[in-house]
Amino acid sequence: MKKIISLLLLSLSTMAVMAADTYISNVYGRSYQLLNGKWDAIVDPYDAGRGARIFLNQKPTGKSDFYEYAFENGMRLNVPGDWNSQNTELKYYEGTIWYSRHFNVRKVGTERRFLYFCGVSYRCNIYLNGALIGSHEGSFTPFQFEVTDKLKDGDNNLIVEVNNRRQQDAIPALSFDWWNYGGITRDVMLVTLPQTYISDYFIQLDKHLPNVIHAEVSLSDEKADETITLRIPDLSTSIKMKTDKSGKAKKTFRINKLQRWSPTLPKLYDVEIETNTDQVSERIGFRNIETAGTKIMLNGKEVFLRSVSFHEEIPQRMGRACTPGDAEFLLSEAKALGVNMVRLAHYQQNEYIVRRAEEMGIMLWQEIPVWQAIDFTNKETLAKAQQMLLETIKRDRNRCADCFWGIANETRPSEARHAFLTTLLETGKDIDTTRLFVGAFDNVYFQQSSQHFEMHDAFINQLDMIGVNKYMGWYAAWPLSPEKCIWQVAENKPLFISEFGGEALYGQSGDETVASSWSEDYQAKLYHDNLTMFKGIPNLVGISPWVLFDFRSPTRFHPRNQEGWNRKGLVSDQGQRKKAWYIMHDFYNQMKMKYEF
Hints:
By secondary structure, the protein is an alpha/beta fold.
């Protein structure tokens, strides 16, 4: 399988390839120069910029010279940030925008330099000093290019051609229920590393054992017999390893008095890795996450997943969440609800959110945007999905808060879909078996013949936990009173309600029995009824209401009650808590009393 993945990565000419000799693990723990701030920008709705050679950023030098473009004295956009929220004319814009900025570099000795992008939405070409250095597709994962030999001593010009136009072979595809933010939406960095550096590492607790740690470290170069030292000072641990001919080293060792990470005590240890040419450190937590029959076990104890979902969006700003402050805002409201988990929907969210969740003791379900109308027959689409999953796991596999890798949301059974998701699952498990692999499905239906809710989908047998999105009282009418609803779904697996809820406009009152009232009263009654129904699910391990905040969606057309917003939030777009918020808050407090975590 590893050989297949290597060939896959090499074949993706439209994406950045994270080969072993260029990958940078824990970029925020490295020496870097942030290239954030105001960037010059040119809007290119007809994709004429490449023909005009905008990437050369030329200036007239003679009396007869002229160019029909200029970055200077034009539009400026914040990086990181989306363009849709920064300019009213770009609110619905889908197309190409060119970004440009200058930065100064002093070339020193044998240091290596990399341009590292934490996220660009959706596809991009990167130009440095007029030359194309690489491309990438996918909004939500990082990528980098080595530019050691491409930098000039002094001033350098970086230009990024960004396009967020929806396409059938993209992930997500043509239609999705959130805002298609475009732009350089996450940090941009110039990273400095030694000639031979620690490119990647994976340090984790054994899946089942509470005191056994597995460590894998890779160097950027294929150097054998190099000594790698791993230290965990708080545990008085120092381990030495030797690299093999590929520059990789592995070690398994026991630890005494290890405090495992949990929502009630999110312990993180300083971990140091050192070679004779490089050193890197970061904070890592250790925990066991596994299944036992129909239960989810955290550190050997049963846990009920008190979850909620949110988009990577600040509703009040109507734009992408992209800063540490944004992460604090979103996660603090989730924590106030009483959660021990967040489902990061429907895509990989930025590293600030992941790391802050870990510090706050919040487990994460992190998924790639294989969402509904994906072309499962297209091999290129499959390759993109595999690449996205690999990039996600590579970035975050040292984050113990990441307990669940989600591979799909609301996909319907077919031979093509089954083969697609099976391959995707194999790709993920090839590099990480310490997490639980999950998916969310909406093909659960009430059967008149049995008078039960049932699901018939062979693929779910391959997953560790089954997520179900079911909107009883909103998209589906109640076939029975809630207390009489019995589920026979994935009976031999842990079952997680990954979405439920309904829309309400904050401050609107109305008949609690009438959905078209769009009232807080109806939403509150809907939540009460769903919580009653959940008692009839014998293998239930957790729930995750959809969604924490109202969020923007161009597919929501109601002129009075939606106005381009999905109003399923427990909290309004202005930060006001709806009645249903308090119902969930009380329920989660009750569940907290029943379980240690």
